[in-house]
Structures are given as structure tokens and as C-alpha cells.
Amino acid sequence: MISVEEARARLLAPLKPLGAEQVALSEAAGRVLAEDVAARRTQPPWPVSAMDGYALRAADAARLPVRLKLVGSVPAGQAFAGTVGRGEAVRIFTGAPMPDGADAVVIQEDAERQGDMVELREPARLGRHVRPAGLDFREGDVCLAAGRRLTARDVGLAAAMNRPWLMVHRKPRIAILPTGDEVVMPGDPVGPHQIVSSNGLALAALVAQCGGLALQLPIAPDRADALQRLADAAVGADFLVTSGGASVGEHDLVRDALGASGLSLDFWKIAMRPGKPLMVGRYRDTPMMGLPGNPVSSLVCALLFLKPAIERLIGLAAAEAPPLRARLAAPLPANDRRQDYLRASLSRAGDGVLEARAFPVQDSSMMSLLAKSGCLVVRAPQAPPAPAGAMVEILLLDSDLALA
């Protein structure tokens, strides 16, 4: 058995970001930029008022009392045609271009209009309430770098930069092939010794969350010819994921059946729990991962291995953030030689520290506990007993808990 760290490194080593495609800005959220994005205009293009008020020459209003003659008005989207001279002011609104000759704004709360005159109650300061041209960015500035996953904020910035189209990495097509005579799809007739399959749909949901396109294949029965035929349907996909049939039982066919038709195996068996029987290799020209059939094992392995594989394919750089830690709410026993991932609730204690409580039963068939979990508590091989209050590494499942 190899370690989780070695397995992840060997899985990711041959994977490269997929090619670029152009998408409309309205479809770009969540995509990863394939090239730097430079602004096509300066923002703001000219000096503009930051407030509703009166544009004037600061030299005319340095000391009170001051009364100035109103010579015009300029809302946003329009411009004052003339020039503000000595002793003059222009009514101005937020975002409107500053008139020629004006270099300050006095806000409307600090002034009183009297017919065609305005009396100031506060002196003006040079540049006060004026946004200079290029305050945000200038034409040619690279404001979004290649490799960035675009947020709603980034979409707004790209729009302001006048970039209606962006080049992003293509979404990877992830073929998902569940296996086993004992499983049926939700809603289908369930035989007396069958169970409802959750793996395929759960994996497809994870693929979508990570930025991929899930290609859901039918459940393959426990026959080598059927498994080979369905695996061949994954031709053209960027990655093949099987679920089930990866262990050592006589009905666990994936390794042997696909080995006879083009599977080149890199490694099999990882020193982890849940998820020991995980396979990684290539099926013909397609990178391939064989996940365990137990629902929890399948999803935990997908979080640890499939998620970073998709992130590599969509162009995300490997994150080297320090591991997140939480305080144990209850003690844990010593661990054995496999790295353990314990399902746990997660909350923020009264002192503000994240607190994890591992569920007492960790059977890998219990999806209800995984759904309830906020994190996985990571236990290194041969870890000694951990008392309540000890700080442990966690793998976050609900990102909002870390920010709450």
C-alpha cells in the first residue's frame, strides 16, 4: 500500500490543463482563466464626482463665508459644456464628469441653494469628493491573471474592463461508470437482494461542483464483456471514473476486465480508511480512477483524488494552503497503520474555535453520517490517542463553517 500523499502526486503528475475556449462573460462564473485579462478602457475614464453636490474651484471656497453663482447642472451620463470660472459652481451628481475648471466638490448637505446662487457651509479642499481618472484601473492593466477561478466579483470587474468574452480552460468531461449486479438506479424496480445506487449520482454532483461535465454511463453488470462495452463508451472523455468492483472479491472485475482491453494500472491499494481499494491508471488513452463501491469510501476518495484531478484539468494551480485545524469535542483512540478520515460534526464554540466531534460509528456504508458531517477529521498512521481539546487536522466539507 502507498500513502495518500504519494497516491495523489502520482495521480496528478501526468495531468495537464485542458485547452482554452471562448465563453461569454455571462457564462464565465466558476471557470478558470486560460490567459491574462487586460482592461480595454480606463476606469473612470475621466475625473468624476464621488458625491451629489456642487463642483467648483477649491481656491474660491477655501474660507467661509462663500456664495457662488450656479452656471449649470450635470447628471451622470452627461457633461457640462462650459468651463467653471472664478466664483462659479455647477450642480453635479454622483458619477458625472467633473466640469473643466472645477477641482473639488462640496456635498449637497454642506450647501444651500438660493435661486441661482449657492451658499457653502463647509470650505472646499482640492480634490475633495473627486475620483481621478484611472482610480480603479487604466487601459492595458492586467486585472485578472491566468489560472484564476472567476467569482461573481471577477465577472463584475471584467464587465467594467469592457471584456464581453473571456478565454477559459475547457470543462473536463468525466465519464462515470457504476458497476455491480446488486445496484439499481433510484426509481427503478428493486430486486429482493438489490440496493439503490447512490454513487453515480453523488459523483456526478461532485464533478459539477468542481467544474467538470459529468457523463453518466449505465450501471455495468458483473460481466467482463458488459463492463468492457460500457467502458468503451467513455472514449472521448477526459477522465474515466468507475465505482465498485475495485476490491479483491471474485466479483470485483474492474481490474481484470479492463486490463484485458487496455487498462494500464499505475497503482492499487492506498493506506487509508475509508477507501483502501482505489485504482489509478489509464484506460487506453484516458486517465482512469477506480473508486470503491461503498458509498462513503467512494465519495471520500473522490474528494481526496478526483477533486484535485478536475482542478488540475481546469487549470487551477495546486493550493499550498496550511491545513485547517479544529479542536476535538471528544477523545479519539490511537490509529493503526492507515490514514483515517473520520466523519465529524463541526461547529464554532463559544470561544470562537472550530470544534469537531467524530461520530462514534464510522461504517463506510452510512451515507447519512457523511451528509450530516461538516468535516473529516484526519488521523495520521499510528497517531496516538487524542484527548478532548486536542487540535487535529480536518478536511472541510462545508466551506461556510470556516467563515461563520
List the defining traits of the structure above:
single chain, 404 residues, alpha/beta, Molybdenum Cofactor Biosythetic Enzyme, Chain A, Molybdopterin biosynthesis moea protein, domain 2, Molybdopterin biosynthesis moeA protein, domain 3, 4 domains, six-stranded mixed beta sheet, 8 helices, 18% helix, 29% strand, elongated
Could you describe the largest sheet, including whether it forms a barrel? Answer: 6 strands, mixed
Spatially, the strands of the biggest sheet line up as: 7-4-6-5-9-8
Number of domains: 4
Helical amount among residues, as a percent range? Answer: 10-25%
Give the N-terminus to C-terminus distance in angstroms.
38 Å
Q: How many DSSP H or I helices?
A: 8
What average pLDDT do the residues reach? 92
Number of strands: 26
Q: Please tell me what the overall shape is.
A: elongated
**CATH architectural arrangement of the largest domain:** 3-Layer(aba) Sandwich
Radius of gyration computed on alpha carbons:
31 Å
CATH class of the largest domain: Alpha Beta
Structural class: alpha/beta
| Percent of residues in β-strands | 25-35%
Contiguous low-pLDDT stretches (5 residues minimum) are none
CATH superfamily of the largest domain: MoaB/Mog-like domain
Q: Write down the CATH topology of the largest domain.
A: Molybdenum Cofactor Biosythetic Enzyme, Chain A
